[in-house]
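Can anyone check this?
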Amino acid sequence: MVVAKVIVTSIYVTALALLCVFGIHRYYLAYLFNKYKRQPPKPRGKFINLPTVTVQLPIYNEMYVAERLISSVCRINYPKELLEIQVLDDSTDLTVEIAKECVESYRSLGFDIHYIHRENRVGFKAGALAEGLETARGELIAIFDADFIPPEDFLTKTVDYFTDPRVGMVQVRWGHVNLDYSPLTKAQSILLDGHFVIEQASRFHAGRFFNFNGTAGVLRKSCIESAGGWQHDTLTEDLDLSYRAQLKGWKFVYLKDWAVDAELPVDMNAFKSQQHRWAKGAIQT
C-alpha cells in the first residue's frame, strides 16, 4: 500500500513539474511575441530577374478538393514561362481521373503542368516530393497540400525574400476557411493560431530554430538538397528537413501578417488521426 502511494505521488509530482515547465515555456513565447510583434520581416531586395518556381501539389484520394487546388495554383500571378506545376498524385480512387483531366485542361492553356502518378506510395508524401524534385526545374519549390487555397499574390509576396542567398525557406501562416463550421473547427483554429501566430513568430524573431509546416511555404531547391533531401523515416518529413537545413546554416523566414486559407478537419476521427501523426512524427524527429 505504501509503495503504491509513493508511485502515485511520484507520477503526480512529475506531471506537475512538466506542466510547470510547459507553462513557463508558453509564457516566454508570449513575452517574445509581445517584444517583436511590431517588427515584420522585410525582403533584402527585389529580384530584377525573377527565379523559376516549381509548385508541388502532393495529393492522395482528394477527389473533392483536387480540382480546386490545381485551379487555385494556376491563378497565381507569376510569369507562365517561370512557373512549373507538379501534381504528385498517389491516389487510388476517382481523384486520378479528376486530377489528370484538370492537368490536361490547363496544359492546353499553355501552363507547364505535369501529372505524376505513383502506385507504390514508397515514402508516402516525402517519397512523392522527392520524386518530383528529381525533375523539377525551379530554383524555388512551393508546396501546397490538397486542402489549401493559395491566393493569387502568394509568390509575389514570398519570392523576394530569396534575394538573400542565406534564406532557404519562407513559411506563411495558415488561415481557416471553415472556421465557423462547428465547435471542433473553432477549437482547432485556436490551437493552430497559438502555434502560428505566437510560437512560430516568436521563434523566428528571436533567432531560434522553427519548422517548415509542410505546406503554404517556399523552399530553395539547393536548401532541400544540401540538407539531405526528403527523408521518409519519420511521419513529419517537414519537421525533419527543417532542423537538418537550419543546422546546415540556412536561414528560415516566417510571415505571420497574412495567411493561406485551408480547410480544417470537420470529423473527429480525421482530427485525431492528424494529431496522432503530428505527435508521433515530432517524437520520431
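Reply from J.R.: I decoded it. Residues 1-36 form one domain.
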